[in-house]
Amino acid sequence: MAVAIATLERDGTTLELPLLAEGGGAPLVGQDIGKPESGPSNKGSINPRWQDQWSRSEGYTLSVRYTESDAYSRAIELADLLKSHSDGEDLLLNIDLPEYDDDIRVAPAAEQDTAVTIAYDVGQTNFVDCEVSLTRVNTTHGSGSQVAETPTATGNGPITLSYGSQSVEFRDDIVVDRSVGRPNSVVRRTTFDFPNYEDKIKAAYDGFEIGVEFTDNAVSRATTLKSMVGQKLGRTSLTLDFNGIYGLGAFDVVPEGSQALRTVRASAEQGVIVVPTLKLRRVMADG
Hints:
The protein has one domain (4-34, 53-282).
C-alpha cells in the first residue's frame, strides 16, 4: 500500500502518484537544494568574499509505484504530462508529508533528458516503477501547443523491432525502461527564491532502453538485430512495436548514442546471446 501520495496538477488535469517503499528505509522523496548562481570571488584575501543574490536550485525525486489494474495507463498519462509543452501553465506538486510546502511550482527536470523513467517489471503484470525528477521554479513561461500522445494498443505481444523485411522478436527475459523529458526547455535565474522556467517549442526526449536474452535461434536473431542497428537509415526509422504489451503500441525509433547496442556471448551458457543494452529514441516517422 502507498506510504504517501503525491499529486501533479496542470490546467485542470490531476495525476496521483503513489509513493511506495518495500521497507528498510527505501527513499520515497528526495529533495536537493543548491546555490549554483552564488559563488566566492577568487580575488584578494585568503578567505573569499561572497555575494548571494540569485535564485537557488531545488529539485525533487519521487519514487512512484503503480500496482493496480490501471498501472500501465497511469504510467502513460504521467509520461505524456511531463513530455507535453506547458503552454505557460504552472505544474503544481503536492506531497502529503508534513515537511513539504503546498502547491510547489515545478518543471520537468529542467535542461535534462529525463524527467521520468518508467521501469516495467519482468515478472509481474500491472506493476510499474517510476522515478520522477522535477525542478522547482518561480513561474512558467512559454506558449504554443506540443501535446504528447503515447501510441497505445491491446494485445499480448510479442515486442518486435523491424525495418523493412527485417524483424526481431523480443520474448525471453526482457527488461524495458522508458524515459521522457524536455531537455531543450531552460531555467533562467532570478532575484526571487527560484528561477523562472522557459518552456520552448523544441524537441522533447522519449527513449527506450531494452535488455533481453536470445535463447532460441540466438545467432540469427542477434545478427539481424545488429544489421538493423548498424545500417545507415538515412531519414527512415525502425519500428518498435509492443503489440499491446504494457498497453503500448508502435513507435518510430532510431538507435541512440555511441553504444546503442551491446551483445554478449556468455561462455557458461551454450547457445545464449545476451543483449544487455539496446537504446532507441523516438523520432518522427521517416524524418
